[in-house]
Design goal:
Strand order of the largest sheet: 1-2-3-4-5-7-10
Shape: globular
Structural class: alpha/beta
Radius of gyration: 19 Å
Number of domains: 2
CATH architecture of the largest domain: Alpha-Beta Complex
Number of helices: 11
Distance between the termini: 37 Å
CATH class of the largest domain: Alpha Beta
Amino acid sequence: MSPQTATTLDQPALLSIDGPVATITLNRPDAFNSINTPIAKCLEELAAQITKDDSIRVVVIEGSGRAFCGGGDIQVFGANMDNLAPVVSELLHHLHHFIAAIRRMPKIVISSVHGSAAGAGLSLAFIADMCIAANDAKFTPAYNKLGVSPDGGGTIGVTEAVGSRRALQIFLAEDSFTAQQAYDWGLVVKLVPPDQLKQATNELAQRLAKNSPDVIRTTKALIHAATRTPIEQQLEAEAAGITHCMTTAAFRGAVEKFLGKKR
């Protein structure tokens, strides 16, 4: 099926849907897809739309032009220095609603990173459930150089993947790091040549989309809850999850197929 374009090309973020895979494209290429309030609002709206669509199983986040995302729009910050707090508050209100939505939605979210992912772009890359990257991609924390602490879910996604000590190193002691370092640290699941990123991202998305919606929903919820849930409560959630999945047609079909092979 050919992709369905769900947004107009002049919007700061675009949505296309191809079967079970939705793709969000950051669409401010002239500004390296830096995040301002309009793009944050658009992302929040697209996440709400995707969440309601039960046919979507996987969401890809990518950037147009030469970069994935250059972080917060410094031009906006510079133009509002005398009254910055309300501007930043509104931007983060929408951006963080988007971040919470992609973390909570019962779909697997993949960031597909090329070029630069800096500041909030780095945070966005790693708050996704998985990150695939071009092998020449560059990750730049940037926050400490601007004299600010991280936002955009960076302290969540990075810390979950690498632990608190490496996260402190990344945000306070690294000017930038390579895609290979990100892979070695467990932040990136796969590295590919730049000209193969699109195809490799689609292949990963399609592979993930073969999982049943119940499996995706339950596994994602369990994994993200594991680090903050007492063991007894987590085991109860695992029991409830697998019991539910065993009531589905997908499970029954898989068992029948397995038993058929054994005969």
